[in-house]
Q: What sequence folds into this?
């Protein structure tokens, strides 16, 4: 008898078939943690948790049942804080392991590991595997996927993290999401590195693919086997919503719905901007924009209900069910 595949969430395991409607790239909190601790006047824990609860309840009211949160080391990850939010919201939140860096490895790993002064095994891989199989810190909350990043170029540090992520994937089967720059076409670079380590690219989301209208680039990402993350709806300062919609509709019309996932890359709170600036420069960059505005626009552009279900329900389920990838 075959067991039902389970996906680890902040509240515990959930059957992959019960994930429901999934937004595949959303954050609860993105924080510069050392600065947050150094500037206590900028942070009220009760207020921030309460605001996150309000925002995520509004998201759940749209019919979304799961968010995949790729907040990892380097983005101020605190799964205990996310759990405090999740206690008050009926929503599955899937946590990640990995490291977000666009240049160097964290200093903690600078002098030990492959190619370093002290050498030895790759400690990042061991950390990622532990967080996937045992839990993050002492919370008992297990990550369900891996996250790494590349912006404009493959630096030695970025490559080392990416290869550590690949090795953790090979040891655990956990899928991978990569932050990439569509304008620099670095999704292809990430695919090359991951492939060289033996990763099945069908287990990879190339994040932020939706920041471009370059169909040739997107065809290559998808034809290589990965999911294209059309996951920054509302971030109009990088690409207006109408162009994002037209790109998704064009790819869906070509039969590529099975290789796209949808999301916003929004946060309940991100401290990268002064108060009020995020809302000023990107007023639509919030968790309900997809259901409020984007899905009606996609339908008007010819995307069918079946294709929307594929992108929001079926593809996330397959992503977290390797045998179905």
A:
């Amino acid at each position: 008898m075959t067991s039902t595949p389970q996906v680890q969430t902040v509240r515990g395991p959930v059957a992959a078939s019960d994930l429901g409607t999934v937004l595949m790239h959303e954050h609860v909190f993105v924080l510069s943690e050392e600065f947050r601790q150094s500037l206590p006047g900028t942070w009220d824990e009760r207020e921030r948790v309460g605001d996150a609860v309000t925002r995520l309840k509004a998201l759940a009211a749209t019919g979304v049942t799961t968010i995949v949160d790729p907040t990892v080391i380097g983005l101020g990850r605190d799964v205990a804080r996310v759990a405090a939010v999740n206690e008050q919201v009926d929503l599955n939140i899937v946590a990640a392991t990995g490291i977000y860096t666009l240049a160097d490895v964290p200093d903690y790993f600078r002098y030990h590991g492959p190619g370093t002064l002290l050498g030895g095994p790759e400690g990042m891989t061991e950390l990622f595997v532990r967080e996937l199989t045992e839990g993050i810190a002492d919370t008992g909350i297990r990550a369900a996927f891996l996250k790494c990043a590349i912006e404009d170029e493959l630096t030695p540090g970025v490559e080392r993290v990416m290869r550590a992520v690949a090795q953790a994937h090979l040891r655990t089967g956990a899928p991978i999401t990569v932050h990439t720059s569509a304008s620099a076409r670095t999704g292809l670079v990430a695919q090359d590195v991951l492939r060289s380590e033996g990763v099945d690219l069908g287990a990879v989301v190339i994040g932020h693919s939706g920041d471009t209208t370059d169909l040739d680039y997107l065809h290559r990402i998808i034809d290589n086997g990965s999911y294209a993350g059309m996951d920054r709806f509302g971030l109009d300062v990088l690409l207006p919503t109408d162009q994002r919609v037209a790109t998704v509709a064009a790819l869906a019309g070509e039969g590529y719905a099975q290789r796209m996932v949808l999301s916003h890359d929004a946060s309940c709170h991100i401290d990268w901007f002064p108060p009020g600036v995020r809302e000023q420069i990107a007023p639509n960059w919030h968790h309900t924009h997809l259901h409020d505005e984007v899905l009606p626009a996609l339908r008007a552009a010819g995307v069918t209900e079946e294709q929307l279900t594929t992108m929001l329900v079926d593809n996330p389920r397959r992503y977290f069910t390797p045998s179905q990838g």
